[in-house]
Specification:
This protein has helices spanning about 5-20, 40-50, 65-70, 75-85, 120-130, 150-155, 195-200; strands at about 1-5, 25, 30-35, 60, 90-95, 110-115, 130-135, 160-165, 175-180, 185-190, 205-210. It is an alpha/beta fold and about 210 residues long. The protein has an eleven-stranded mixed beta sheet, with helices on both faces.
Length: about 210
């Protein structure tokens, strides 16, 4: 069921999320498969629907930096980069707080978190007032979807709704940077933000471990 992003449909999608259902959502990167990040039941559904390995952690999405501070430990590097590049296609890895279920992080002490730029997705997060886990809305190993119709073709019969926000701006997953140690930033995934662009806002050279 593809829904236009009207106020009525956003409210409906928020109610679905709060009942532990899954919906596909538009972001500026790719469409995401969203569920309540504080619910083990919803997280388990995400892994099941995507056929995603349980060892592959989920990225958490918040409405703003104030909300994000509830879910991971903040240091100077995180605050500096978040102030400069959030909202946007940047995921920051930090030390998680206990409120986040272990299934989300695959049992690790770290959490990957970002604030999306897409206004439809941010409005939905604001309505549910809870962080949302939202990996790409496709079966594991498939090409990430950039339009609502792409999601319908692969997951349409397995999720409760698809919120149509048009074609994704970037069509590429977010850049991921590990800032657990502010003096040793590590680029984990290339994306819309490049290494040199991020380094403009940090005092240290970024080490790259991704291809």
């Amino acid at each position: 069921m593809i829904l236009s992003p009207t106020s009525e449909n956003l409210t409906k999608c928020a109610e679905l999320i709060l009942s532990d259902a899954l919906i596909a959502v538009p972001t500026e990167t790719v469409y995401g498969l969203a569920g309540n990040a504080l619910s083990e039941k919803a997280a388990s559904k995400i892994f099941e629907v995507k056929q995603r390995p349980m060892t592959d952690p989920l990225i958490i999405h918040c409405h703003d930096f104030e909300q994000a501070c509830n879910y991971f430990e903040i240091n100077q590097a995180i605050e500096r980069l978040a102030t400069a590049l959030w909202p946007g296609p940047l995921t920051i890895v930090g030390i998680k707080k206990d409120i986040i279920p272990n299934i989300i992080t695959s049992g690790q002490e770290t959490i990957a978190l970002r604030i999306p730029e897409n206004p439809v997705f941010r409005k939905l997060i604001q309505l549910v007032n809870t962080p949302l886990a939202a990996p790409s809305a496709n079966p594991f190993g498939y090409i990430s979807p950039t339009e609502a119709i792409h999601v319908e073709r692969t997951l349409g019969g397995k999720i409760s709704a698809i919120l149509d926000g048009g074609r994704c701006h970037h069509g590429l997953e977010s850049t991921i940077i590990d800032l657990r140690d502010p003096e040793n930033p590590i680029l984990l995934r290339h994306g819309p933000y490049g290494k040199k662009q991020i380094e403009l806002f940090l005092d240290h050279t970024i080490r790259t471990v991704c291809k």
